[in-house]
Amino acid sequence: MKPLDPRLLRYSAAARSYLAVTIGLGLAATGLILVQAGLLARVLAGAATGTGVAALAAPLGALLAVLLARAAASYGGETAALWAAAAVKSQLRCRLADHALRLGPSWLALSKPEGHRSGEVTTLATKGLDGLDAYFARYLPQVVLACVVPFAVLIRVGLADWISGLVIGLTLPLIPVFAVLVGLHTKATTQRQWRLLARLGGHFLDVVEGLPTLKLFGRGKPQADVIRAVTDEHRATTMSCLRVAFLSGFVLELAAALATALVAVEVGLRLLAGHLSYQTALLVLLLTPEAYLPLRAVGAQFHASTEGAAAAQDVFEILDTPVPTPTPGPRAHRPVDVRKDAIRLSGVTLAYPGRDHPALAGVSLTIRPGDHITLAGRSGAGKSSLLALLLRFAEPTSGNIEVGGVDLASVPLDQWRSQIGWVPQHPHLFAASVADNIALGQPAASRSAIARAARAAGAAEFIEDLPQGYATPVGERGLRLSSGQRQQIALARAFLRDAPLLLLDEPTAHLDAASAARLRAAISAPPASPSPLLADRTVIQVTHAPSPACGGGRVLTLDQGRLAQVTANLPGRSAPALLGAS
Fold first, then answer.
1. Quick check: is 146 in a domain?
2. CA neighbor of 101 nearest in space, from 120, 119, 115, 121
3. The whole model's pTM is what?
4. For the chain, what is the domain count?
5. Has residue 122 been placed in a domain?
6. The CATH number of the domain where 60 resides is what?
7. What is the pLDDT of residues 246-264, one digit of tens each?
8. Which of 52, 356, 413, 534 is the most exposed, fewest CB within 10 Å of its CB?
9. Euclidean distance between CA atoms 543 and 384, whole angstroms
10. Which residues constitute the domain of residue 392?
11. Residues 6 or more apart from 217 whose CB is under 8 A from it?
């Protein structure tokens, strides 16, 4: 970890003004320290030589004003530094969330061998970045003072007594040398402490989310034992960090005390010999501790700030992760519309890192506007991977995808996804009302439109039986609802969104027989039917078992990433023509 990481300032321009105030007040505090020492030496020397109170009134008043000004400068510097920390944390959290969204869910699972688990990212963005308060409010101001105060004191003492200035100049480098040696030993311990905290946060979130499953299979106690073990390891590492911090503080205090004592001894001997005036001796003795104090404080605050700085390094690692940007095709970009433009996959292969076989291999397919397609196949056949390509959660390893002759990679991501309605296998519901969850993609939708979408998804009946109807909160991740009810709300969300391309990943997996039959009837209605929700939409439905084609369309069977079988039910069209295969 660098003593001063410039990336924290580069990623947070809003903090620079606050830090400028902090530095300015630090320089003012430096001048006040010199003035305070001079006034105090003058007052003490005058009192020792019998100077009257009246004569000392002016220096005493000035000394009081300097003390108040120094306290105000210290308070203002720390306040400005805390504002800087708040600005840095806010911007880093916003950038982290934005970059994670652009990296997509594939990065969350595949970026590392163990993945960037959501709990670790959550711990990083909350507890981790909160540690930057100590970095900005205490460590950075001390770095400023450590760079200015010792040199200012050294110059002032040297002008008053060159011998004392020489002693201070020779002993000052001992403090940063010891601090660097201790810091090298602390670095690995601190980074281990932060890694354990992130691991603990990630595992705890996994346990909380999977609590019903763990209780059902009787695995609650073993997971509690795992959390206890990680907690104990984190506690031991934290105590090790604190032990190093206390020992380093002792080393720095001892070095500063010995250096101060050395100056005091030589000043005392020369004062007794009459080679140094009383006021000069007092000035040297008052300023000598001030020369070492900022360096000692930097060493102490460095340990307090390491957690936040280590978390910031992990944030920078994520921010430096490049967003996949495939090279666009030769065609110039133009707006695409799935209602009019066909989607063509040509020899598309998708391989995930660390896997022996590609998820998709040489898939060629043409999806025309208004097509209703059913993707069938066993688990791992590549159905969800094909949807991931259309959602642009992943990019083809080879081959290309075109929409109306335009390379999909050249289409702005927001513009493309605005044309897609998606229902995953495990839909996420937010801790809001039923209506808010249905209207997630259409926040301005009317209550009647929301109710219409709910009826089409077969959800209206159970929603109306809820205590507050559409205003009923669903709880965190929709845990107050059954799996089938959550699936129906996700379907209603997709139906409500005015998206010409509808992707359904196992839409009936969690539904009872009657609800599944109603949903299949709604999906299977041909484009010319009077249903206003699916008319003119392109629908791609994923299922494990082969089933009749939806809407009289096609059933495509995937096997080990390849199109193994095609059933075309549209009159007047042959399977090769629909596939776009040669």
1. yes
2. 121
3. 0.62
4. 2
5. yes
6. 1.20.1560.10
7. 676 677 777 778 888 888 8
8. 356
9. 10
10. 343-579
11. none
